[in-house]
C-alpha cells in the first residue's frame, strides 16, 4: 500500500482500525477489508475551512441520527506547525441518476426535516468527544461556534439572539458590504428598512436555531450505493431558521414537488409570506455567487431584490 499521511494513520489507529486491514482504493479512498466499510480522506492547507466542514458534519450527524443522511466523521487532525489538516469520514459511492426519482425526493425531504427537527443542544448521551462546542449561553442563538465557508466565501457566524438581525446583518448585509455595488446598495437600503422586517420580524411558527446544511444545492446531494440511502455533504453549517436551508434548492433545480411535500409534511410552511421569505433566503446565494463570480449573477440578485421591494410597498411592518 502506498505511503499514508501520518495524521491519517493516527486517525485510523485511534479508531482501532489496523492499517494492515486497509486497502488503498486510490484518490484518498480506503477500504476496511474486514467490514467492507470505505473511508474518504482529505488533506487540506486551509485549516479553518476544513475545521468548519468537520464541525458542521458532526452537528448534522447528531440531529440526523442513524438515518444515513450524513457521512460519519472518523477524525480530524492538524499538524504541529498548523499549516496542514486532514480528515477521515465515511465514504459515499454516489449515483446521481437516482436523485430525480420520486422515492429519492420523498426520502430526502423526510430525512432533512428530521435533521431540522431537533434543537442544536440535543446531544447523544455518553459521547463526550462529540459534544457540541457551543456553550449554554449560545444554545438558543443563531450562528455557529466556528467559521464555515459557503463555496470559498467565509461566513460570519457570530452568535446573535434575533433571527431577523442575524440574517440581515450576518448573511445578506455581510455579503453586500463585500460586493460594494452601488445599484445593489440602493435596493439594500429599501430592503433592510422595510422588506426584511415584514418577512422576518413576525411569522409562525417562530424561527428556532436548528442546524442547517447551508449550501444544499443539487451538487451536494446524492444516493449512496453502499448504504442505499439519500445523502448530503459539503456543508456550510450554522444554526438558523429551518426554511433557510430550502432557499438555494430553488436556485439551480434538482428538487421536485415530492421533496417539498415530504419536507413540509413534518415542518408545515411558515405563515404569512412563505414564498416571499423563500426568495429572501434564496437571495443570499445569489449574492454569494455575485461575490464569487460576478457576471450574470448580479442581474439575478437585483431581480429578486427589486421584486421583493416592490411586493413590500403596500405592506405594513409588524
UniProtKB/TrEMBL annotation:
Keywords: Kinase, Transferase. This is protein-ribulosamine 3-kinase. Pfam families: Fructosamin_kin. Residues 119-136 have a biased composition (Basic and acidic residues). PANTHER family: FRUCTOSAMINE 3 KINASE-RELATED PROTEIN, PROTEIN-RIBULOSAMINE 3-KINASE. It comes from Kwoniella pini CBS 10737. Residues 115-136 are annotated as: Disordered. It comes from the Eukaryota. GO terms for molecular function: kinase activity; protein-ribulosamine 3-kinase activity. SUPFAM superfamilies: Protein kinase-like (PK-like). Belongs to the fructosamine kinase family. It catalyses: N(6)-D-ribulosyl-L-lysyl-[protein] + ATP = N(6)-(3-O-phospho-D-ribulosyl)-L-lysyl-[protein] + ADP + H(+). The keyword Heme does not apply. It is an enzyme of class 2 (transferase). Its EC number is 2.7.1.172.
